[in-house]
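Notebook B, p. 112. Complex prediction, attempt 2.
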Amino acid sequence: MKLDFSVAVHSLLYLEEKSPEKVTSSKLADLMSINAVVIRNTLSLLHKKGYIKGTVGKNGGYILSQSFDDINVGDLYDLTIPPILSYARFITGDTDNHSIKDKAMAANMSESLTDLFTLADDHYREFYHQFTMMDLKRDLKHHGYFKALAEKKA
Amino acid sequence: MKLDFSVAVHSLLYLEEKSPEKVTSSKLADLMSINAVVIRNTLSLLHKKGYIKGTVGKNGGYILSQSFDDINVGDLYDLTIPPILSYARFITGDTDNHSIKDKAMAANMSESLTDLFTLADDHYREFYHQFTMMDLKRDLKHHGYFKALAEKKA
């Protein structure tokens, strides 16, 4: 879900802006108008990977623990949206009631499309890996930074 | 939906195999174990774009009208899965109840992520545009063709 990725990015941007102030998960939930459970799941992932540090109890909260130059956008994408190919979604043709030749075509097609979709997804993720959170912050301040980079490469 | 793309690919492969024999939409529906309405929608798209020719009535059916070398897999992907970015899915933070600064961050983030996701989707689609249906048929016969091509480029 793209939303989990947005929550991660939004949380990091906010922690960076407030740094060195601590920010609570309920503050982030309120900021994004998102259910606190969703926020806490994402913060837990960011915490596990060492992007943020958290303290509990009174005056608890999260702070950013890595520089934006060191946080790769593709890593955040992979963390919040793990690559899972749902095979059932694109399989056409079952293995019963058909001729051996037709069954073979369906089976071979599933195998080829699985490869094709998997490789396309890898290619897709590479796109995000080009950028750090610092790039994202640049685009936030001056929209068009991503577009200009993409055009330069094309 | 990836399924629409699979249906298009499976239909073309089957028409090519049966050529010059005509194939009915109900035969294709049975072959893929897919609802006939889904099949007919996809065949209608393929027909509009001139990939297949159809005749109605008794002994009616579809035949392939282009060579596999001339049918681009990326064009089929764009045809069956048009690029539509669902903004609502990744927007965090509304425009009420928050400070001007927080609202600006949320608005800027929506704009930057829209650009990022749109460019990533363009990049994703480029992957499919590298291949023709002839390449797909090659991979069907000798699995690993796509993988080998991707590795060569990496």
